[in-house]
């Protein structure tokens, strides 16, 4: 009776308005041993078939929307909008500055309302913004549109990390996230072929719609359509309608062993002590610096990659086609890394390995002669940089895998995406108009950032390994078995305490 009374009390804490708009289901505490492995496997298969394809398409669409101006720049986008000097660079920078400013408020909104519903509404609005880009005719108008696009798009990556953390075990985080992470390149191939067709058609019909305008209509319309699917299918176990009440309990039981908490209660309060801990935790700042250093080259290359290709001596349409093999290889590398992440403590080693080809490739691009005789060597060097695409996603996995406490998780997620915005916004400014078309200083700066990222990730790995060693020694001194440590850690995680407060939590690296 006491459990039923507690459950009813919790349900009454949710306002009637919230319940009407965003119904959220509560259920009793469960343990991992309450269900069989067959029940877990059956539910996991259902989760994968519903969530992963939708997340793959959604993440691919947002990446295409965000970086579409790089391809549009090949088709008189800058000339038609009278962009001069650094104005094109600022279209990328303002997007990430807006992303930065609104990241924390949007994370707060998602915690207070609903992850899936909030994201789908904002997706609809950013689709409208992308579509409206086709009607721009000057820099001021584009700056307003890119600012609004950053505001609406800032929710997708944080919400995906929350969704992954509430549906999947820690051991599954990297492999599942990498699947939707491949959309950057996988969906990019599809979009590239569509944009090639749009560009080819526009060049054959000079009096028709400009290619860059057609690309805006295509990308914006696709996003608006997708937002309706996300409204009905995307969210945490509490929010979606495509699983039964019993399946919600199984979903909760699957992830109690993560020790970072589940979403079975509507934890809407923000805990100040967890926010303070987020800022005092050394891992937060290892994460911040690593994400900034990964974002600086990423921000520049995503906005100027197409223009770098044309400096090799390729035409606009050739640039679109010749980038497809790089995207395809990126998918293969993502899948290889996803498979290897199934083994314990491989994530940081794979990040370190991925940095090396990118560092070499960018440095070689800057040092090679400007002659078009070296175009295919330069193509190969630029091709090598695809290995670094995985690092941003692997860094993000620190939040669902290694951060305990709902409020701390939201705070660290916001800090991480602030770092992401700082890096990407600054990276666009590396590429100065006076350095066109080769942008040699920018390429050298990007390679230096990758070298520094290598140092930070390596140091961070040693720090996490040391933290686990200290906790293992403490557990041994108390006479606890590994099984007891796992059980106690899971119990503490369900109390919404942080990873540092939970002595039985172990970091993955």
UniProtKB/TrEMBL annotation:
Gene3D superfamilies: MFS general substrate transporter like domains. It comes from the Eukaryota. The chain crosses the membrane at residues 88-109, 121-142, 179-198, 210-234, 285-312, 324-341, 348-367, 379-399, 411-433, 439-463. One of its GO terms (cellular component) is membrane. One of its GO terms (molecular function) is transmembrane transporter activity. It is a multi-pass membrane protein. Keywords: Membrane, Transmembrane, Transmembrane helix, Transport. The keyword Cell inner membrane does not apply. Residues 487-509 are annotated as: Disordered. It is found in: Membrane. InterPro entries: MFS, MFS_trans_sf. Residues 493-509 have a biased composition (Basic and acidic residues). This is Major facilitator superfamily transporter. It comes from Lentinula edodes (Shiitake mushroom). The lineage of its organism: Eukaryota, Fungi, Dikarya, Basidiomycota, Agaricomycotina.
């Amino acid at each position: 009776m006491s459990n039923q009374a507690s459950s009813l009390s919790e349900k009454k804490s949710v306002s009637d308005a919230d319940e009407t708009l965003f119904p959220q289901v509560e259920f009793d505490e469960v343990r991992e041993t309450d269900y069989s492995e067959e029940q877990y496997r059956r539910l996991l298969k259902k989760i994968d078939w519903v969530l992963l394809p939708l997340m793959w398409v959604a993440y691919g669409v947002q990446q295409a929307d965000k970086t579409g101006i790089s391809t549009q720049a090949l088709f008189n986008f800058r000339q038609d909008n009278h962009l001069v000097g650094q104005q094109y660079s600022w279209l990328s920078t303002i997007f990430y500055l807006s992303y930065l400013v609104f990241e924390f408020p949007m994370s707060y909104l998602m915690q207070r309302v609903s992850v899936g519903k909030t994201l789908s509404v904002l997706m609809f609005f950013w689709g409208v913004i992308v579509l409206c880009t086709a009607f721009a005719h000057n820099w001021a108008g584009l700056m307003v549109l890119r600012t609004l696009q950053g505001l609406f798009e800032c929710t997708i990556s944080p919400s995906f990390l929350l969704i992954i953390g509430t549906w999947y075990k820690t051991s599954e985080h990297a492999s599942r996230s990498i699947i939707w992470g491949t959309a950057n390149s996988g969906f990019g191939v599809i979009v590239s072929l569509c944009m090639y067709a749009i560009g080819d058609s526009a060049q054959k019909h000079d009096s028709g719609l400009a290619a860059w305008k057609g690309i805006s209509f295509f990308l914006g319309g696709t996003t608006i359509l997708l937002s309706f699917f996300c409204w009905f299918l995307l969210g945490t176990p509490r929010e979606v309608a495509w699983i039964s009440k019993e399946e919600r309990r199984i979903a909760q039981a699957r992830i109690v062993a993560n020790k970072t908490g589940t979403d079975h209660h509507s934890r809407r309060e923000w805990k100040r002590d967890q926010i303070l801990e987020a800022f005092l935790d050394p891992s937060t700042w290892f994460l911040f610096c690593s994400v900034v250093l990964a974002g600086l080259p990423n921000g520049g290359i995503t906005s100027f990659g197409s223009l770098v290709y044309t400096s090799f001596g390729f035409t606009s349409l050739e640039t679109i086609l010749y980038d497809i093999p790089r995207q395809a290889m990126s998918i293969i590398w993502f899948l290889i890394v996803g498979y290897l992440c199934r083994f314990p403590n491989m994530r940081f080693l794979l990040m370190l390995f991925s940095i090396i080809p990118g560092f070499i490739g960018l440095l070689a691009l800057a040092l090679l002669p400007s002659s078009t005789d070296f175009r295919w060597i330069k193509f190969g060097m630029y091709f090598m940089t695809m290995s670094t695409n995985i690092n941003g996603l692997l860094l993000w996995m620190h939040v669902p895998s290694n951060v305990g406490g709902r409020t701390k998780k939201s705070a660290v997620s916001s800090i991480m995406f602030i770092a992401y915005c700082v890096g990407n916004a600054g990276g666009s400014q590396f590429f100065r108009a006076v350095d066109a078309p080769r942008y040699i200083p920018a390429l050298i700066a990007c390679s230096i950032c990758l070298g520094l990222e290598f140092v930070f990730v390596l140091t961070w790995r040693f720090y996490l390994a040391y933290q686990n060693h200290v906790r293992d020694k403490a557990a041994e001194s108390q006479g606890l078995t590994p099984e007891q440590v796992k059980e106690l850690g899971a119990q503490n995680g369900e109390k919404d305490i942080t990873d540092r407060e939970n002595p039985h939590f172990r970091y993955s690296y």
